[in-house]
Design goal:
With 79 residues, the chain is of the alpha+beta class. The protein folds into 2 domains: 40 residues, no CATH class; 39 residues. Helix content is 47%, strand content 28%. The protein has a 3-stranded antiparallel β-sheet, with no helix packed on it. The relative contact order is 0.13.
């Protein structure tokens, strides 16, 4: 099985997140013959958000560094 979708969103997308509109994490797993979809408990959502926060921050830092490096290389070629 593999994760095909991980979605964290408010239960009602057009309303503000709060007690009456909590975040819901839906995970879809699939294999060649079956797809399983489940909703995680709010404690598990917090764990996933903390993990994703670190991963996204690291990826963004790498992407910005690569962009700056390319811009500096292009500027260096123009001189």
């Amino acid at each position: 099985m593999k994760i095909t979708e991980l979605k964290i969103a408010p239960k009602v997308p057009w309303e503000v997140v709060g007690r009456n509109n909590p975040l819901v994490c839906t995970v879809k797993l699939s294999s060649t013959d079956v797809v399983v979809q489940t909703v995680l408990h709010e404690d598990q959502i917090e764990q996933i958000l903390m993990l994703v926060q670190g991963i996204v921050a690291e990826a963004a830092q790498r992407n910005v560094a690569a962009f700056v490096s390319q811009v500096l290389a292009i500027e260096g070629e123009g001189n």
